[in-house]
Amino acid sequence: MFKTNLIRILKTGFQNFWRNSWLSIATISVIFLTLSVITALVLLNVVSQSVVANLQNKVDISAYFHTQTPEDDILDLRKHLVDLPEVEAVNYISREDALESFREKHDDNEILMQSIAELNDNPLQASLNIKSHTASQYQGIVSFLEKDEYKSMVDKINYHQNKEVIERVSSLAANIGTGGIAASLILALMAIFVTFNTIRLTMYNWKDEISVMRLVGAGNWYIRGPFLVEGVIYGLLAALASLIISYPLLYLVSPKITSFLPEVDLLYFFEANIWQIIALLIIVGVALGCISSAIAIRRYLRA
Amino acid sequence: MIHFDSVSKIYNGNCAALEDINLRIKAKEFISLAGPSGAGKSTLLKLLICEEKPTQGKVFLDKQNLSLVKPKDLPAIRRKIGMVFQDFRLLANRTIYENVAFAMEVVGGTNDEIKQDVPQVLDVVGLADKAEYFPNHLSGGEKQRVAIARALIHRPSVILADEPTGNLDLLNTWDIVKLLLKINELGTTIILATHNREVINNLGRRVITLDKGKLIRDEEKGRYIL
Ligand SMILES: Nc1ncnc2c1ncn2[C@@H]1O[C@H](COP(=O)(O)OP(=O)(O)O)[C@@H](O)[C@H]1O
Ligand SMILES: [Mg+2]
């Protein structure tokens, strides 16, 4: 009996789907749109995370020392820094090195060159350039440099400027994420609304049948079944459509993004996580379809 | 088998559609429910199929208090009751056979059961030769017989007929009444709600008369008196 019912419910569900093919297509399009935005959101998240991670790798700290600080003291401090577990590398740039690179950088600027030459002393400071393993460890290194014993030699630490860039990128990524989530929620609501109305229309076509079903004592699940099936079909087809469209699209677009941001390979991410992506799309699509039909059926089933 | 215990029904705060109805109906009786339109006949039948709940009092069907029935048990109750209406309520895009089969399909009858039972009931109502017709090609009396066939398909213990002859001419009216009598003889309780004086006076069965929601008369071998 269960099998007979299941076959009949599936059959009626497919009938509903075919009889209103234009409405079905419209409904699938809206769910498809929602799923595409969600996919785009996931991929955007991958991009922004890679960019942030990459930026964090490029960050370092430079500590500048007062010009009268003896070189030995600085090299001594360097040894201590290298011993710190969070420090990956420390580069010493002497005052002469600094002047050298300053000259190289500005050799087309005559005024600047002249004024440097007019000074009898090298105005540039020696510095230590420090890289840590991860960005969060910089705070610890900064506090190490701010200890009393080094206070007298350290003039300034330029960590804070870079931190700002990182924070700006991170918050930009977070904003894009929030915006994307809001957009997908709005689209999801729209999808529910459209699916709800479509299913209500197919239900309207079935209203005589439904009233007879109730009259002769059909179970509520038997009445609900075909419309839930209809909703599930919408969700599945929309998920399928967004997979079919996003893969070739990524195939074209991903290399361009990679050439622009070498650390980002969306196609690889997509392929590596294909099952999770398929599962996400199907779950969200089917859930949208089911929720909408469940709401639409409710009023037909009261009493 | 059916018991109305001090039942009143008031639709959303207005005047009472039924007032303090006390009534017992035994299995296999043939009851005529008489009364002018608006008397509360349909309301009384709706209480039996749980389409409405009594405002006060209790309705029992086979000792089961219908006020306590949960929504999920409604289908089971409705399968015990066959219901026939003035407007037939057939599905226009299905043949006679399919209309009756539909009632079995939706409650999980197997294809074999359907093949076996549908011709049988169509035979009982005398429509075996018109199984492949669509409702629009039948007369009113024939449509009503299809509706009765559909009501019979679950072998209900009671059939509720709400003005089943309201849309029919005299000849067809008698056709339907005779069919109901025949079904009653085969062992099914019948409650026939009608305001047709002729029908009631010629039946010579128990008549329960309602007027303005009150039960004003209940007689064996009664007549339509108002
Ligand atoms: N769903 C409803 N809502 C409000 N009033 C109703 C409803 N159904 C019936 N009534 C009222 O209840 C009374 C009895 O109606 P009904 O049972 O249909 O009478 P009958 O079938 O004898 O003609 C009438 O006054 C009618 O207007
Ligand atoms: Mg009525």
Task: Give a verbal description of the structure.
The complex is a heterodimer of chains A (303) and B (226). By secondary structure, chain A is α+β, with helices and mostly antiparallel strands. Chain A has 2 domains: 2-55 and 176-302, no CATH class; 57-168, 2-Layer Sandwich (Alpha-Beta Plaits). Helices cover 77% and strands 7% of the residues of chain A. A 4-stranded antiparallel sheet of chain A has the order 2-3-1-4. The model of chain A has no long low-confidence stretch (mean pLDDT 84). Chain B is α/β, with parallel strands linked by helices and 226 residues long. Chain B has one domain: P-loop containing nucleotide triphosphate hydrolases (Rossmann fold, 3-Layer(aba) Sandwich), CATH 3.40.50.300. Chain B has helices at 41-48, 74-80, 96-105, 111-124, 140-152, 170-185, 197-203; strands at residues 2-10, 16-25, 30-34, 56-61, 64-65, 81-85, 158-162, 189-193, 206-211, 214-219. The two termini of chain B are 28 Å apart. The mean pLDDT of chain B is 93. The A-B interface holds A 1-2, 4-5, 8, 208-209, 211-220, 222-223, 303 and B 50-51, 71-72, 74-79, 83, 89, 91-92, 102-103, 105-111, 150, 153-154. The structure holds adenosine-5'-diphosphate (ADP) and magnesium ion. Adenosine-5'-diphosphate binds at residues 11, 17, 35, 37-43 of chain B.
